[in-house]
Amino acid sequence: MTRRFPRPNAILQRLPLGSADLLRYAALIAVLLAIEPLFPAQYQIRLANLILVQGIAAIGVNVILGFAGLVSIALGALMALGGYTSALLMMRWGWPFPLAFLGACSLSAGVSAIVGLLGTRIKLNYFLLVTLALSQVITMVIVNEKALTGGPGGLLGVPPASILGFVVDSDPRFYVLIVPVFVLALYMAQRLRQSKAGRAMFALRLNEPAAQMSGIDVTRYRVFAMTFAGVYLGASGSLFAHLLRFLGPESFSLSLSLYLTLIVVVGGIGSNVGAAASVALVTALTQSLQSLGSWWVVIYGLVIMALLVVAPTGLAGVAASLARKAPRFVSGMRARVDRGP
């Protein structure tokens, strides 16, 4: 009797919950690390690092906007909170990087949770004003507390990250650090999307009254979404600080919040992968258009508007549409080949 061995997909399905996903994301880490030597210059490695740092922030913004349906303009402020917290804990109090990083994530998550709790007491239209107020307060503290934050001149001499003796003092070394952190952030956000909490958030975004009638606790899940995203924004701010080794209030202006919101819209609201891919696309578009001089901003705006008109569901919607049409296209091509000339 011939013994039939299970197919690879069947083997993966029998592994413990999440193991198949872990293998896929481990493969993604390996691929991203393998392409690092292909970057032709130091500038490209720095750009790749910035894309991955902003990708973590964009995934967090997607949880707020794409999962819970909240619009916040305190995104840059929460990143600033994470960046300055991580830098000051290492510079002033001598904390090691892992603890400073966790402190930055915790503080940003705590502040974000408080804002989310306040937002549940008011209408969503006023929630935008609450986040605007938070953004202004954090900016004023950064600018006015010169003895602590360096004020408008910025905070110089931010120490490099260091983990178990591995000092991240160059862009190639930072790339080795940021790749696993980015992939872990993507993995956790995808797990959230597939969880009961993620489905409850999507229900709130799509139809809040119907979700409430189904027994979904609006306060609980909105605060959870803000807290979860606060961790991501704090982590992104911390990594940004130790990448550039300098922090200034202009790095976390209101335009950063608008940029991150645009990233999520272009990527496809609700799609973590789309948000991450959108960062790379928009950054590449920006870099390619800057050679056009002062006109690049106008052309950039027109391209983004055209993209949103042609693909209102974002990159994720386009990819999903192509995936649906691909089998029919292949079937049609096979039928033509079978019919012959």
Got a strand count?
4
Mean of residue pLDDT values = 84
SSE pattern: HHHHHHHEEEHHHHEHHHH
Structural class: mainly alpha
Largest sheet: 2 strands, antiparallel
**Parts with pLDDT < 50 across at least 5 consecutive residues:** 1-17
Strand order of the largest sheet: 1-4
Silhouette: globular
Instruction: Kindly provide the radius of gyration, computed on alpha-carbon positions and rounded to a whole number of angstroms.
Output: 22 Å
Determine the fraction of residues in helical runs and give it as a percent range.
over 70%
Give the N-to-C terminal Cα separation: 46 Å
Total helical elements: 15
Query: What fraction of residues sit in β-strands?
Result: under 5%
Question: Could you describe the 3D structure shown?
Answer:
The chain has a two-stranded antiparallel ribbon with strand order 1-4. It has 15 helices and four strands. By secondary structure, it is an all-alpha fold. A hairpin with a 2-residue loop joins strand 2 (161-163) and strand 3. The protein has a domain at 19-253. 75% of the residues lie in helices and 3% in strands.
Key phrases:
two-stranded antiparallel ribbon, globular, 75% helix, 341 residues
Question: What secondary-structure arrangement, pairings included, does this model have?
Answer:
Blueprint: H1 8-14, H2 19-34, H3 42-67, H4 75-91, H5 97-119, H6 124-144, H7 146-149, E1 155-156, E2 161-163, E3 166-168, H8 171-194, H9 196-206, H10 208-213, H11 218-244, E4 246-247, H12 254-267, H13 272-289, H14 296-310, H15 314-339
Helix pairs in contact: 2-8, 3-8, 3-11, 3-12, 3-13, 4-5, 4-6, 4-11, 5-6, 5-11, 8-9, 9-11, 12-13, 12-15
